[in-house]
């Protein structure tokens, strides 16, 4: 029960309020809530800023992320690697040649997709001798990055794959459900953005995915 | 034979049947209907079953379950009603705080950290609390009671129970039942209002990806919020403090066992006595009144107004950001985590199948929890609970 000790309350808990008092209480309350949360917003911005400053100082140069980007491909791939990556590509080609025993020049490393679109490494295409890739093995997205004319369906949010409702070779219409994700105890349907044929399914039931992980490729 | 009749009469007159009147019988029927809704219809069963059973026990006469402790110093013995003991956790607002710790351990504040402006949506969705407070005053409730009723509009069960236990104990069962019923009805209550208050174009807006939040930020957040919010409104300490402790358990990475206990075992353990105690306060004399009906009506209004408040600020943000914010996430500012965010996701995806609002709606949703705790702290402060 509220105490009736006058030092404990601002407005008497049991005596009727006048109309202006009541209105002021409500408006004041809403303002207090807004101010609190607005201040909290500022606090969060400050925290984020400070943390980012500290993180930036701790690791000034993050490890070259490009290592994973270019993918080894058999000689069939014609595209030339980007200029600034040529050195890296040369190193990688040497490494692949050494590990797989394939003669230098029988294959070429090329960045087959625009770099920002496919950060995950594509696997080694089946060559005469399956060459192990020197780059860290791809984990979440083992499917090949989409070429021109193909559409990559990516995960819209972090979650678990609950169901995969399509298979390679199946033709789908725009709007058909491809994958069902589970997040926050709720099932979320990921549907096809375009009509086409399912070229590859990277999603497997039960695995956890993050935002922008490749789920399905439609061509 | 005469002895036999005497025994039977004595047992019959001392039994509960003799003490039953029509009001108590009606309460027993209500309790059974609530049990049916929980078990048969699957309507928030985890809460409704203990509440309804508590109601059933409370209205069975002369059980002595709610007797206050009697201590006999001469023989060093005493008796106390079992339910009286359990009720102390509600009386002194212990259960709501422990439940808040569990909620903190379940909640990922990442979406809020990635998009701090969603805090404002969480504040706007507290509109219903203050509007319902005014309406309750008009209906003749005392100011402290009106404040406790208004808090239903935050759609936050533990907060409503805590406020009611401090400001209006007699209304506690009606307030708790109203708060939890409306939380369960969110998927039915909110969508019509969401369609009414937003344009079709705005509902189809796809929001840009949230940035990734580092673990350091997630660890600093609960500590900073506790210091900051509790310094500003000390009355929120039992709620915000525990919520943030639970969240720290979750994010700090070295207390997984505590986090696991807080969000699973402990929250279940506390839900049982909480539900029983709330039900136990619903006796015929306190529940079968006109006040209960008004509380249920006011609760619904408060809830609708809170949703509307969030949506209207969502619309304002939609206009200010020139269409980058989908106003539907404003409706998630009511603090029922994660139900309200799920509704925003469902309504958004119905408009545009490739729209995924769940994570964006989680920001206002968890902000709503903080917002209604602040609103409750304000009410408690003003009316001296």
Please compute the radius of gyration of chain A using only Cα atoms. Answer: 28 Å
Q: Specify the overall morphology of chain A.
A: elongated
Largest sheet descriptor of chain B: 2 strands, antiparallel
Distance between the termini of chain A: 68 Å
Number of helices of chain B: 21
Average residue pLDDT of chain B: 90
Number of helices of chain A: 2
Unreliable stretches of chain A:
65-83, 112-144
Structural class of chain B: mainly alpha
Binned strand content of chain A: 15-25%
How many strand units of chain A? 10
Helix percentage range of chain B: over 70%
How is the quaternary structure best described?
heterodimer
Alpha-beta classification of chain A: alpha+beta
Largest interface: A-B, 54 and 60 residues
Major pleated sheet of chain A: 4 strands, antiparallel
Distance between the termini of chain B: 61 Å
Taken from the alpha-carbon principal axes, the silhouette of chain B is globular
What does the average pLDDT of chain A come to? 72
Roughly how much helix do the residues of chain A carry, as a percent range? Answer: 25-40%
Keywords:
heterodimer; A: 219 residues; alpha+beta; 4-stranded antiparallel beta sheet; 10 strands; 21% strand; B: 385 residues; mainly alpha; 21 helices; 71% helix; globular
Describe this structure in words.
- The complex is a heterodimer of chains A (219) and B (385).
- Chain A is of the alpha+beta class.
- Chain A contains two helices and ten strands.
- Chain A is elongated, with a radius of gyration of 28 Å.
- By secondary structure, chain B is mostly helical.
- Chain B has a two-stranded antiparallel sheet.
- In chain B, helix 9 runs antiparallel to helix 10 and helix 11 (157-167) runs antiparallel to helix 12 (172-184).
- Chain B is globular, with a radius of gyration of 23 Å.
- Chain B starts with a helix and ends with a helix.
- The model of chain B has no long low-confidence stretch (mean pLDDT 90).
- The chains are: A alpha+beta (219), B mainly alpha (385).
- Chains A and B meet through helix 1 and strand 7 of A and helix 8, helix 9, helix 15, helix 20 and helix 21 of B.
